[in-house]
Amino acid sequence: LQNLKTAYLAEREYRRGARVTRRLTQLIPQDPTQHRDLGVLLVQANKPGRAIDPLRAYLRAEPQAEDARDVQKFLSRALT
After folding, report:
1. What are the backbone dihedrals phi and psi of residue 67, each rounded to the nearest 5 degrees, phi first?
2. How many CA atoms lie within 13 A of 69 on its CB side?
3. How many helices (H) and strands (E) does the chain have?
4. Environment class of residue 56 by beta-carbon count within 10 Å: exposed (0-12), middle (13-18) or buried (19+)?
5. Which residues of the chain have pLDDT under 50?
6. pLDDT at position 45, please?
7. Distance between CA 55 and CA 34 in Å, rounded?
8. What is the pLDDT of residue 37?
9. 37 CB burial (10 A radius; 0-12, 13-18, 19+)
10. Among 4, 54, 62, 78, which residue's beta carbon has the most beta carbons within 10 A?
11. What three-state secondary structure class fits 62?
């Protein structure tokens, strides 16, 4: 699934990438980066409402992450 996700990202197929990443979050729910990726992909796929929960989950799990500010920006976009 990770390889498929990478292929979709390379092709900017954000909806397909989000679909695969949602499955990855189900298979490995303890991996916060999958939640982050799902949220970002959903914003990029013009599904901002669906991005809110995964982005918040990532920020709760990794509040000191190096990319926390960037993720917060995606969350702000999803909330508007």
Report:
1. -100, 15
2. 1
3. 5, 0
4. middle
5. none
6. 97
7. 10
8. 98
9. buried
10. 54
11. coil
Give the tokens for residue 28.
């490995």
The four Cα atoms 46, 52, 53, 54 give a dihedral, to 10 degrees, of: 60
| pLDDT for residue 36 | 98
- Sequence-ordered list of residues with C-beta below 8 angstroms from that of 28, at least 6 positions apart, any chain: 34
Task: Indicate the length of the chain as a whole number.
Answer: 80
**Closest by alpha carbon to 44, among 66, 17, 20, 7?**
17
Instruction: Give me the residue label for tokens 């990319």.
Output: 67
pLDDT of 48 reads 96
Strand, coil or helix: what is 33? helix
Question: ∠ at Cα 70 (1, 4), nearest 5°?
Answer: 10
In angstroms, the Cα distances linking 66 to 8, 11, 59, 61, 71 are: 25, 26, 11, 13, 10
Here the tokens at position 62 are: 């990794």
